[in-house]
Amino acid sequence: MREKNGGDVFEIVTVRTYPSEYAALTEEAKRELQAGDLPALKKSPPDVSSYDLILVGGPVWWYTVPTPLMSFLRQADFAGKKVSAFCTHEGGIGKFFPHFKKQAQNSFVLEGLDLYKPRHAGKGEVDKALDSWLGKFL
User: Which of 30, 31, 39, 112 could pair covalently with 14 via S-S, beta carbons 3.0-4.6 A apart?
Assistant: First the structure.
């Protein structure tokens, strides 16, 4: 995405490492969501006061926003900023976008983008979807 809009990148990284095995990861994600257990992040969100538009992305976990992204949104100050989300998934977005909008407090949430099976789609297909989405804002 950076090469498409020239923006800065902040990577959301948790203090503890998630399991690399798929089944174990999905069970941990489910446990965190059910318990409301948001993971600690290695770095606090950056100061975004000088930005006009903030793009936030991540995978869909259990049909919603993943807990590391929830931690980020809880800590970030997007007051008065235009924010848009993109997500990747292999089966359905569920309530990702309404949940994202609710958690991106005090911001103006713009239309999001969901990328279905981006690893399986051709690069041209993903690029076309990104270009179309970004063209609405940039």
Answer: 39
- The neighbour count for residue 12, using CB atoms within 10 Å, is 19
**Residue for token digits 């490492």?**
17
What are 30-81's pLDDT values in tens digits?
A: 999 999 999 999 999 999 999 989 999 999 999 999 999 999 999 999 999 9
Please give the CATH architecture assigned to the domain spanning 2-135. Answer: 3-Layer(aba) Sandwich (3.40)
CB 76 within 8 A of CB 42: no
**What is the C-alpha separation between 115 and 130, in angstroms, rounded?**
9
The answer to whether the beta carbons of residues 88 and 115 sit under 8 Å apart is yes
Would the pTM count as exceeding 0.85?
Answer: yes
